[in-house]
Amino acid sequence: MGEQGYGGPGHHSDAVEHAGVEDSGTYAIDNPGLPPHRPRLADEDPRAAKKAERQVAFLFLLSILGTILFFVGYFVIGQVGPDTAAETLRLQNMLLGLGTAFAMLGIGVGIVHWAKTLMPDHEMVEQRHEVRTEADRADAQGIIEDILEESQIKRRPLLRNTLIGAVALAPLPAIAIFRDLDDTDNRSDLAAENFGVERFRHTMWDEGVRLVRDPSGTPIKASDVTIGSAFHVIPEGLNELQYGKLNEKAKAVVLLMRLDPDKLEVSEGREDWNVDGIVAYSKICTHVGCPVALYEQHTHHLLCPCHQSTFDVTREAKVVFGPASHALPQLPITVNEEGFLVARSDFQEPVGPVYWERG
């Protein structure tokens, strides 16, 4: 009874038989192995291989031309300004976009086409073997030689040279763009070692500049700000700018809130930076610069939606959670004779991510 019951020897024999496995532990069905290799046209026809080589080289040349096209738009069109025509701006943006696209796609598509048409495509199974320390150097050298041989980069100098040219030129547009972010060399009052940090220290805020609502530009009176409310604020005059409006807004935009003054922890030197519990802080997260736009009234927390950095408004927007490492810069404010909220001065430190040294 025990031999025929569930889990007995008879059951084990049936399970082995139904699984298609012999008692010896070997599979009843042989391993079919890899399917037969089907050679490509370029593997059998030298003319097809040469054609594929020319196609890959053309794609690499297209990448080089794309980089050149970028620089034509960047340098030949020239720097834009307040009087630049809209047609010129559209032409420059088109050349910059097309140049960058061709530079990147030419390299990417070229390498993929190279691998699909010219590099070996046979499948293989390499058995794991014990690594011998004394043979590591020889093994590494053999792997590199195999890669060079399979890529055919030694036998096809046209591909090698065009690839080197495309890869060498492709990063240049990015270098030019990042270098253009810093105009320190054009401003005699700034030291070159600041790497443009002063551009984030100085915004449109200044003594007497009124706080206005974003985007309407309506001035804000202290009586308009009730406890628990929050306003997205820009400096007065920002909307009237003809050039550089977005750049200035990206640095100057702030959040305005009103709390119970008894709940504010004010440090020495900041006693007059708020107006009866009304405080203003930079909207630019100190982590990577995302807009801090979520205000939790009950906790008095400001939340960055990108990486959940959280700032405590009652403690001068200090970080209480998340990857940000620095409090949000506070804008000193006061009230003018007409009752409108105005700035006492600019921010006392650079706004934005703490990539730059804060002196």
TrEMBL record:
PROSITE patterns per UniProt: RIESKE (PS51296)
Chain residue ranges for the region called Disordered: 26-47
Annotated TM spans: 56-77, 97-115
Membrane topology: Multi-pass membrane protein
UniProt-listed SUPFAM superfamilies: ISP domain
GO cellular component terms, semicolon-separated: plasma membrane
Keywords, sorted A to Z: 2Fe-2S, Cell membrane, Disulfide bond, Electron transport, Iron, Iron-sulfur, Membrane, Metal-binding, Oxidoreductase, Respiratory chain, Transmembrane, Transmembrane helix, Transport
CDD domains according to UniProt: Rieske
Classification via InterPro entries: QcrA_N (IPR045603), Rieske_2Fe-2S (IPR017941), Rieske_2Fe-2S_sf (IPR036922), Rieske_Fe-S_prot (IPR014349)
Lineage top rank: taxon: Bacteria
The keyword Isomerase is assigned to this record: no
Domain Rieske: 251-342
GO MF annotation, one: metal ion binding
Entry's localization field: Cell membrane
Protein role: Iron-sulfur subunit of the cytochrome bc1 complex, an essential component of the respiratory electron transport chain required for ATP synthesis. The bc1 complex catalyzes the oxidation of menaquinol and the reduction of cytochrome c in the respiratory chain. The bc1 complex operates through a Q-cycle mechanism that couples electron transfer to generation of the proton gradient that drives ATP synthesis.
Family according to the record: Belongs to the Rieske iron-sulfur protein family.
Name listed for the protein in its UniProt record: Cytochrome bc1 complex Rieske iron-sulfur subunit
Organism: Micrococcus terreus
